[in-house]
Every structure is written in C-alpha cells, then in structure tokens.
Amino acid sequence: MIQLHNLAVEFDEGFQLKHINWQIEQHQHWLITGANGAGKSALAAVLAGYGEILAGNTSGLPCNIGWVSFEAQAELIQAELKKDDADILDVISLGTPVREIIFTAEIDTTVAQGLIHKFELNYILDRAFRKLSTGESRKVILIRALSCHADLLILDEPFDGLDSTAHTLLQHHLAEVVQHTPVVMVLNRFDEIPEFISHIAYMEQGELRHQVKREDTQAYAELYQLLHLKTTDLQVPVADTDNVIPALDPQQPLVKLSNICIKHTDMVLLNDLNWSIEPNQNWQLSGPNGSGKTALLSLITGDHPQCYTNDIFVFGYQRGNGESIWQIKQYIGYVSTALQWEYRVGTSLRNVIISGFYDSIGLYSRSSDRQKQIADQWLALLGMPNRGDQPFNKLSYGDQRLLLIARAMVKHPPLLILDEPCLGLDDINRQLVLALIEKICAARETSVIYVNHHAQDRIAGIDNYLALEKSSDNC
Amino acid sequence: MSNNYFNTLPLREQLEQLAKCRFMHMNEFTDGVNALKGKKMVIIGCGAQGLNQGLNLRDSGLDVSYTLRQSAIDEKRQSFKNASENGFTVGTYEELIPTADIVLNLTPDKQHTPVVTAVMPLMKQGACLSYSHGFNIVEEGMQVRDDLTVIMVAPKCPGSEVRAEYVRGFGVPTLIAVHENNDPQGHGLALAKAYAVGTGGHKAGVLMSSFIAEVKSDLMGEQTILCGMLQTGSLLCFDKMIDKGVDAGYASKLIQYGWETITEALKYGGVTNMLDRLSNPAKIKAFDLSEELKVIMRPLYNKHQDDIINGTFSRTMMADWANDDINLLGWRAETGETAFEKTVAGDVEISEQEYFDHGILMVAMVKAGVELAFETMTAAGIIADSAYYESLHETPLIANTIARKKLYEMNATISDTAEYGCYLYNHACLPLLNDFMKDIDTDVIGRGLSSDDNGVDNARLIEVNEALRSHPVEAIGATLRGHMADMKKII
Fold first, then answer.
1. Pick from A442, B42, B363, B408: most CB atoms within 10 A?
2. What is the dihedral sign for C-alpha A64, A66, A70, A76?
3. Contacting residues for A11 by C-beta, under 8 A, at least 6 apart
C-alpha cells in the first residue's frame, strides 16, 4: 500500500503540490486528471521519487517503477541531441541506436522482444533513436517501461502520439499487465479512460481536490462536467498591419507538390505523391506513425533537405531557384511536438508569441509596440493575462503548446500547419484550441492543414482529406 | 616548399595585420547574399563544417554543391553520404571546380596544401577561394594564383551549432577576412560578407579580421588556455585528489563535469562572475592561487606566443606531419593511459554549486589561463577583441567536450593542429607546476574549505574584487557580450 500523508512537495520550477493525502491500495488502478498546469504529472512524479518533500511523509513507494511521460521522452531526446553537439570541428555523431536504448540491463528481454514484435518495430532497432518520429520514440519509451519488471507503472498520457493500431495494442497489453501490476495513469482526455481504472484523482492548482471511485456514477459524471467547462466567445486578435506579408497570386495554388519521393538509405518514405492546396482550402492529413506525415509537411516548410530534389511549388516559388527558406516560412504558421522540443530557449511568454512574426525560435529582432500589444491580446485570449514576462520554459507542457499555437497564428499566415496540435492538452484547452482552429477555418483567410489521429477531433470547416499509407515500394 | 608568409612581411605590416579586428555593424550587411546570388559555390569536404555551412547557404537561396576526391565518391565514404543524402550534387574536382565561382575549402588544415594545390589549376579565371582557417596561407605560405580572390569566413562554433542556430532564425559569431595579396577585383569583402549572411553569422555578430590575426590568435588560444590548460589541470587535479584519498569516482566526476560548470559562469559574466560564484574566503583563495599560477606559467605562455609568431610552432608541427604524425599519435596514446582518463566518473550527485566550492583550484587555473592568454596575445600586438574571442569566449565550448568523454573527446574533436599544440603545452606545464602542486591540499580541490569560518578581511576582499573587475579582459568582454546581447535578446 502506498501512502502520501499531508504531503507538500516542491519541484525545480518552484511549482508546489500541497495538502496531498492519498492512499493507493492493492488492486487499485488510478487515473489522475485535471486541467493543464494543475499538477497531474507532478503528482505522478512524486510516486517516482521526484520533487523535494517540504512537509508530510510518504510510505510504501516501490523502488522499481516503469514511467512513461512526455518529460521522460523529452529528457531522453535532449540527452541524444546533446550528444549530437559533440563536435567542435568535424565529427558527425550518429546517435544511439534504438536497440541500445531498449535493451539495457534491467530489461526483460522476452517481454521487450514480444512488444517490439507486436508494435512492428523491428525495422527501427538499428536506427538512431533521435531520428525516430514522435510516435516511434513514444513506443520505444513504452516498451522500456513495460519490460522492466516494474512494481508500479506510471503512465503519463501513454496514448498520445500513437496511431489507432498502436493505441488498441497498448490497451490490450495493459489489460493483461494490470492483473499483476498496479497502474497510475495520467490522462487529460476522459474519453480515453481504460476499463481497468478503478479510481480517479482530480488535481487543481497543485492540490488533490477530488477522489472518486469509478463505480460511483454520480460523482464520476460531475467530474466529467468539471472538465468540460464551456469556453467563452473567442475573438482572434488582428494581424500586424505594419508588417504585411507580400501578397500572393490568388489564381495560383498555395502549394503544389508533384511526384514527390522521399527516400532514406534503408527505405522509401513517400513515393510519387501529388498534392495541391488551393487558397482557402482546409485539409486534414492522417496516417499511421512513420507514414511520412511530418516529412511531407517539412517539404512544404522547407525543413526537409530533400525539398531541393523534388518538384515543389510553394507560395509563388518553385523550390531550388534562389529563394531563401525565410521567404517561404513567412507564409506559414506551424505547430508540432517537435517544435516544442526545439523551443528550448529561456525567453518570456510575450516574446514567444512575437517570435511568430519572425519565424524564429527565440526572438532576435527588436519588436514594435504594436507587436507587443497583439501578443498581450493573445495571452488574454489563452487565459494568461498579465503573464507576458514569465519565462516560457517554466510553463506546463500543455500551456507551452497553447502559446506555440498562438505564435503560429499571430501573423495570420496564408497557411497554418497544425501537426497534432492537441497532443498533451487537457479537455478544456483542447476545446479552446479546436474552437480557435474552427474560427480560423471559418474566416477562410487562412488555409489549414490539420494532422491528427483522433477521429473525434474533426474540425467543422475542414472538407479535404489526405490519408498516407506506410510505403514499401522503391522509387 | 613552404615558406612562412608572415615572416616575409616587414614589422610594420606584421603589426598592422595582427591588430586587425573590428566588430561589424548590422547595417553593413544590408546587401544580404546578393554578392553570391546566382554564383556557383563548390564546397570541398563534407564533414560537420562543410555539410552544415552548405545546408545554411542553400537555405539562404545560394547554389551549393560538393566536390570530393574520386576515392571518397567511389567508396561512398561518410562525406559522400552526408552530401548526397541531403540532396546535394556531388562531383570530382575535375567535374565541379572548373564551374565554380567560389570554392570553399572546408577540409582539415593538414590537407590544405595538397587540396589547394590540386584544385587551383582547375579553378576558372577570376574565381574566389575561401578558407575557414588561415593556417595554409599564413604558416605554409601558400601562393595562390594572382587572378583568384582569397577570403576567410570562420564561424566560431562547431558545425552542428552553425546549423542549429540558423534553423532557429539566428546564427553563430563569425570571423571574416580578405587576403590582401589576393583581391584583384576588390570584391573580396563583399563576397565574405555575403557568405557570412548566407550562414546566418551576421545576426550573431561578425568580426572583420585578417588572416594573420586569425591564425596567430587562434593557435595561441587553442594550445594554451582552451585545450592545454584544461588537459594539464585535469591531470594534476585528479592525481592530487587520489593522492589525498578522495574517492576516485568522485574526483573523476568533479573534473569531467567541473570545467563545463564553472566555465558556464565564465560565458555569462566573465572571470568576475566565475569567481563571484565562490564564497568570499574561497574567492580570495582562488585569486591568490591564480596570481601564483600566473607568475609560474607566464614564461610558458610567452614561449608559446613567441613560437607561434615566429613560425617555430608551425615548422615543428609540419615536420611531425611529414614524419607520419609520430609525436602526435604517441602523445594521444599517452593521454589515453592517464589515471584521470581511465577512471570512470562515479555515480555520485554533485550539485552545481559544489563544482565551484570543491573546485577552487580549477577556477584559479581557468582564471590564470584566460588572463595569461589574453595578456600575452595583446602584448604580441593582437587586438583585445580577437584575444577575447580566442581565450575566454571559446573556453566553455572546449570544456563541454571534456564533459562528454573527457580528454579523449576533446582531443578527438579539436583540430589536429590544436591537439598538437595542446600536448606541447601539457608536457611543458606539468613539470613547471610540480612544486606548486606540492603545497596543494583538498581544501582547494576535492573537499572544499572548512565551513566553520566564513569571515574575511574587508580590505582584502575589496582589493580582490577590484582586481578582478579591472582586468582588461573584463572590459572588452563586457563590451562584446553587450553587442551579442543586443542581437541575441533571448539570453
């Protein structure tokens, strides 16, 4: 039995959990839920031994824990990125292969092999971990946690970033695991709650406000309501009239990709793909993990090296004819999990939003008063008024995402690319984001490309669909 | 046969060239990449610098391709894969050099003479040859055809950073220069500026220097404070701790990660800030130790600078090149066998502050090394701006490599030239500090001062603070970090 008694815990960022009284008995499986920044992940981290205990005490914390979280994933990726900086002059680090990341000493090889087989991951074992897609690296983290003989499994948003096949596989696997291992799960989407969850903990402002038994249907419904607060009327702030993006020819498509082929040494990712995006069209892009969604988008944004070897027409430029990527990027607003990982700069919330005017990570230009005003309007819209001077890297994961969405929208770009924008957001903020996207789609001045696994996240104004398959052919 | 170019110049010109270094204003780059638009840029070599500079230049709208030796292409070596997998055209010297308007030589120093000798006859009339280090021109006296323009563009960061900062919408500090003997059309500066814009360097700050100032200051910095002092310091501090019974795993970790942690403070606020991280008694202790170290080591710094200025260093090193790198490889193996190198960092928690508190001697060594390198360079006629970049500014970059894989990583990632100089320094410095180390105990390395008395004499503390803050490296550092902060408001 795990007990947290009158616990107060402080984390690095100064975030505190207070008055935590919680008891996890054998055969119980808990869900921790609550709004972004409420302390859900922090409470889970306490079970894993993180944070500095200021008051109260704990007992019965198991020592061997399987832990899956965005933080754990980001930590591993950052460690890998750091290795990549490892050259002062002329060495290119190849990165740690997935095989080494998974098969460490404490891993049950048979279980891990089984999961690799189930997830069909044999093909990535020899690749560098940092080269994996978001979904692939998430699966690697899952396999590590599920194969380490854990006494307690802490699964912080385990389904995020997984395609529906992987989602179902994991659900099935967990149904077996819970027979012998207690699970504490952090989810901000109530509709994903697995059958085996027996208790729910609701966090708010660092406190454990409600504890509800699953079988108590009345209390359960109220908790659900609490998470589904209606959003108020949203007014999207205007663009910066002092810095207008050069106009586009309305007769030409925004994007025209012809016979696209992306190949790596060991595989063909996309083969002979054609895609046109006309002005005012909105698109939903879907496909399983590793089907090349992000690669396809990076051809449009100019972030993929093979955009110079393909037939790409974007915003009036045929790529590879002397245009710079900044001329392309000025027409695009972009949000993705990868962007959030790359946005590791110590700057203020206001500057993060303003950096959207310059397409930079961090702010390197003097900003105008007008831009500051617009940024503050966005902060108010996101429910963060008067927080413009706070540091971005101290925000919760979900709040960071909201900020990056505002950053992408701030210049009212002709094309807005939202690569799984709801990943890691709670219900309330997810609704806020979806409402924002709907408003932008409805205004028809920005075309949206929306990438998402969740079928129920469909947006009202989106009527074009592109679905990618895993390619196996040769170019 | 090579002929040291610097030594052929009269003293007046030597001094004039050494003193060149100016922080350029943002408005000097309003022409963007125009001087290179539509020109064919061919890069020789596709290592980290070659690849990442090429990616940036291409993303800035410039026409970039790579030329490699036939054998590298036939055997599909890593350099070939780097270039072709990123969608660049790759060809042999014969295929691509004759088409090039500007040839970017991004190979290691040691290959410069054979590479430049091979490509020069293939280059078209009036083209431009670009370097990112001036060794070949200055120390080997490479004579470049009269019709060719010769420039240097040197990003002052590893290749991966050059790319990462560009993608963020920024750049890395960059040094540019024009070889005045080879600027027949007078457009060398325009090309160098456009190149710096193409890699994003103009956003982070560009220093206009000369081939000579770059070589003489770069060599001095890398072999003394940057690599030499850190290597010697690592070996001495480790052996002392073991001798005094400090746990070997702890000692290994304290040094491996200590350099990185203490020089991070140096990066943000110079020597002053690094010492301000110590308690008052520890600060005074570090100050006194560094004063003592400076007296002992000054003749060594002078010797290194003299040998670099008069060409003794490069001549000796090139003799080793000609001798199959016998000394270099021997010293490399020797370093791999040292106790510090062979002791794995222990699984112990060391807090950020503890690296300072238990590493007072390391702080003293960094302070002494930075100040001596700076003082020696400026005394030799190198301007303060150059001296700052080649001493204090780059120390944290090298310290990071030690944190990764100790001295092995440092020596594997720096250039062969830097590595050679580092060993020279180390062999001279170890015996030099023999007597000094005899009096050293764990209060300054390994365990920290005893905490029962935190008191200091006011007058002495004021004196020390004053001395720290008034050193010339602090004045120029404050100015240059100010320029950088103006441009990089995120810090």
1. B363
2. positive
3. A42, A45, A50, A51, A52
Asked whether residue B195 falls in the same domain as residue B259, the answer is: no
Cβ contact B195:B284 at 8 Å: no
Dist. CA A150–CA A158, nearest whole Å: 16
Query: What are the beta bridge partners of residue A312?
Result: A257
CA distances from B380 to A280, A306, B295, B310, B425 (A): 65, 49, 18, 11, 18
Phi, psi of A317 (to 5 degrees): -110, 130
Among residues B112, B133, B202, B304, the one annotated as catalytic is B133
- Please name the helix (run of DSSP H) or strand (run of DSSP E) that holds residue B103, with its range, or none: strand B102-105
User: Residue B61 and residue A324: Cβ atoms within 8 Å?
Assistant: yes
Q: What does the pLDDT look like over B244-259, one tens digit per residue?
A: 999 999 999 999 999 9
Query: Which amino acid belongs to residue A371?
Result: Q
Asked if A247 is an interface residue toward chain B (Cβ–Cβ < 8 A), one would say: no
Considering only the beta carbons, identify the residue of B63, B158, B203 that sits closest to A364. Answer: B203
Tokens 């003799």 -> residue:
B319
Tell me if chain A has a CB within 8 Å of the CB of B51: yes
**Residue B348 three-state SS:** coil
Identify the CA nearest to B448 among candidates B295, B254, B184: B254
Q: Which of B209, B238, B254 is the last residue of a domain?
A: B209
User: Higher model confidence: residue A313 or residue A438?
Assistant: A313
Q: Are residues B290 and B372 in the same domain?
A: yes
User: A438: exposed, middle or buried (C-beta count within 10 Å: 0-12, 13-18, 19+)?
Assistant: middle
Angle at A36 (CA atoms; ends A2, A213), nearest 5 degrees = 40
**A104 exposed, middle or buried (CB, 10 Å; 0-12, 13-18, 19+)?**
exposed
Give pLDDT, residue A399. Answer: 79
pLDDT tens digit sequence for B395-417: 998 898 898 888 887 887 788 89
CA distance B157 to chain A (A): 7
Cβ contact B490–A345 (<8 Å): yes
CATH value at residue B244: 1.10.1040.10
Q: Which two tokens stand for residue B254?
A: 């304290």
The stretches of A184-305 forming alpha helices (DSSP H) are 217-227, 293-301
Q: What is the ipTM of this complex?
A: 0.78
Same domain, B204 and B234: no
Q: What is the pTM of this model?
A: 0.76
Contacting residues for B402 by C-beta, under 8 A, at least 6 apart:
B230, B234, B255, B256, B259, B260, B409, B410
Select the residue of B63, B158, B490 nearest A85 (Cβ to Cβ). Answer: B158
For residue A107, give the DSSP letter: S
- Residue A303: phi and psi, rounded to 5, are -90, -5
For the cut 60, the answer to whether the pLDDT of residue A79 exceeds it is: yes
The residue among B438, B53, B402, B469 whose CA lies nearest residue B227 is: B402
Which residues in chain A are contacts of B88 at CB distance < 8 A? 308
Show the tokens assigned to A216.
């108590």
Containing structural domain, residue B353: 213-487
Among A305, A311, A302, CA closest to A257 = A311
| Closest CA of chain A from B187, distance in Å | 21
Residue where the block lists tokens 């944190």: B403
What's the angle, vertex CA A399, arms to CA A405 and CA A404, rounded to 5? 20
**Residue B62 sits at the chain A interface (C-beta within 8 Å):** yes
Domain architecture of chain A: domains with CATH: 2-227 (3.40.50.300), 255-467 (3.40.50.300)
CA dihedral B54, B55, B60, B62 (to 10 degrees): 40
Q: Is B470 exposed, middle or buried (0-12, 13-18, 19+ CB in 10 A)?
A: exposed
Distance from CA of A436 to the nearest CA of B (A): 26
